[in-house]
Amino acid sequence: MKLTGGKAIEFGGLPGRLYSSVATAGSLPRPAYVLLHGIGVSHRYFARLHHELALTADVYTFDLPGFGDSPRPARQVPVGEYAAFVHTALADAGVRSCVVIGHSMGTQHAVELALQQPELVAGVVLMGPVVDDQRKSVARQALALTRDAMFSESVTSNAIVFGDYFRAGLRWYLTELPVMMEYPMEARVRGVGQPVLVMRGSKDPVASRGWCERLAGQAAQSSLTEIPGQGHVFQHTAPGPAAAAITAWVRAVDGFGVTA
After folding, report:
1. What share of the chain is helix, strand, coil (3-state, %, to 5)?
2. pLDDT of residue 27
3. Distance CA 52, CA 42 (A)
4. In angstroms, rounded to a whole number, what is the distance separating the alpha carbons of residues 25 and 129?
5. Which of 21, 192, 205, 234 could be a cystine partner for 144, CB 3.0 to 4.6 Å?
6. What pLDDT, on the 0 to 100 scale, is given for residue 250?
7. Which residues face 91 on adjacent strands?
8. Cβ neighbours of residue 214 under 8 Å, at least 6 residues apart?
9. What is the dihedral of CA 84, 87, 93, 98, to 10 degrees?
């Protein structure tokens, strides 16, 4: 399914961009997946996973306000506003039910969207979730990210991530960093009634196995899976196994209504 987009969108004065791969009118109903990126990055590090999922589903990916090709807002944006922004864009696109897939800080946006719009979000996938409750300092997060980049990632994943960091700029990154660090992930996940899949790369120093197990334990309906031999950005380095794990989980969970 061909990726279309870079469609400019705006809500509440926040500008972003939406990229999509959607079946043509008259096609059989397909699941709908929504991909939400983490701090500093953009839709680009989701491109491979987007392609894999789009073989059998409608897929929507964002450049959230302030990141990628989206202009920088004039103020700090809390997680709840990002979630409301995503909801407005999806409603405008005609999405009535979806599985929302967040990566890193995008997991916070995914959880908040599920809480704000339970009738829209049929399930939640948390890939490399943050922030580990036992490493809740900027220094520890920076060290974990450095270890991941040096020892667990590919040249291309590092090029995309650090290229996007450069585009976002240090000022905007530091503006949003406190939002990520202060978000009460465990407490918020407890309120999610939809099925939750927690995913991590087995070599990920950012989202440790213990943290992911603790987080999964907070959700009412949860599963945990690892992608062997991968780091934090496994959606780029192992898109096939990542997509297979997500689609297998969706098929295994009863009651998903995820057609667009």
Report:
1. 45, 20, 35
2. 72
3. 18
4. 35
5. 205
6. 95
7. none
8. 133, 186
9. 160
Phi, psi (5° rounding) for residue 155?
A: -60, -40
Output phi, psi for 52, to 5 deg.
-60, -45
What CA–CA distances, in Å, run from 186 to 182, 192, 221, 232, 249? 11, 10, 14, 19, 22
- The strand pair at 58-63 and 14-21 is best described as antiparallel
- The tally of CA atoms less than 13 A away on the side-chain side of residue 104 is 23
- Beta bridge pairs of residue 63: 17
Question: Which of the four CATH numbers 1.20.58.1000, 3.90.1010.10, 3.40.50.620, 3.40.50.1820 does domain 4-252 have?
Answer: 3.40.50.1820
Cβ-based neighbour number of residue 76 at 10 Å: 13
pLDDT along the chain (260 residues), means of 10: 74 94 79 97 98 96 96 96 97 96 98 98 98 91 93 96 96 97 97 98 97 97 97 98 97 66
pLDDT at 122: 97
CB 148 within 8 A of CB 205: yes
- The residue type at 170: L
Q: Which residues are paired to 11 by β-bridges? A: 14
- DSSP assignments along 161-194, one per residue: HHHHHHHH-HHHHHHHHHHHHH--HHHHHHT--S
Task: Check if the beta carbon of residue 179 is closer than 8 Å to that of residue 100.
Answer: no
- Residue 20 backbone dihedrals phi, psi, to 5 degrees: -145, 155
Tokens describing residue 79? 């997680």
- Cβ contact 101:71 at 8 Å: no
At residue 85, the 3 state secondary structure works out as: helix
- φ/ψ (deg, to 5) at 99: -100, 125
